[in-house]
């Protein structure tokens, strides 16, 4: 018997920061239907946008980034938990409810959804940043079978009472990996760009498809900008773990990303 499709969609920070774009995206997310007109099984993973940084500045909590990743000290952890698992997560859920999409918002600590450990690095102390150990796929399946859309905030825990700040792209990838045994998983990274671009400043230079050999060539020729490399790395990890399809593209073209009519398809074939 064929597995039911599951769409795991990561929405990027710049969409979170724009009230109109976020509302438009969530309206499209809420309306996603399968070929027979039924609502599709779907999980939305969101980042935090710039709100956490803005609040940290207002509270005079210094922020430090290393290679685009936030150093999460104790005070910063409080802020990102309030912003990501609190305001942003529940605001998304409320907008989905307004669009007749029954949704539930969760952090990794809720129902032991995402267990992680404090990141260990040879030279950098990332503070309370978390790397994922396990995703509670059976529990997520239970929610999906009740026709709930799941909204995941990028806060995890270590089962010892410690919350951890975890990269949202990685949460999307690891959730996709964890759900593969139960569903035919399609992973979509949606953000403000039209896909993976040959020229980061030219939206018309979208690369339709990237295979491993072409990806190696693009990196060697330095034709992919640094911020995109982790996304594509995550995409290949997901594919190698059984995810059916990975697509990267513009959140405003969500319906086309679902059907692979837009964006960049990452494939092993």
Give the topology, please:
Blueprint: E1 5-11, H1 13-16, H2 19-31, E2 41-46, H3 51-58, E3 65-66, E4 69-70, H4 74-98, E5 103-106, E6 114-118, E7 130-135, H5 137-144, E8 149-152, E9 155-157, E10 163-165, H6 168-179, E11 184-191, E12 209-210, H7 212-220, H8 229-240, E13 245-250, H9 254-258, E14 264-266
Description:
The protein is α/β, with parallel strands linked by helices and 269 residues long. The chain has a single domain (5-266), classed as Acetylglutamate kinase-like (Carbamate kinase, 3-Layer(aba) Sandwich), CATH 3.40.1160. The chain is 36% helix and 23% strand. The protein is built from nine helices and 14 strands. The chain has helices spanning 13-16, 19-31, 51-58, 74-98, 137-144, 168-179, 212-220, 229-240, 254-258; strands spanning 5-11, 41-46, 65-66, 69-70, 103-106, 114-118, 130-135, 149-152, 155-157, 163-165, 184-191, 209-210, 245-250, 264-266. α3 (51-58) packs across α4 and α6 (168-179) runs parallel beside α8. The chain starts with a strand and ends with a strand.
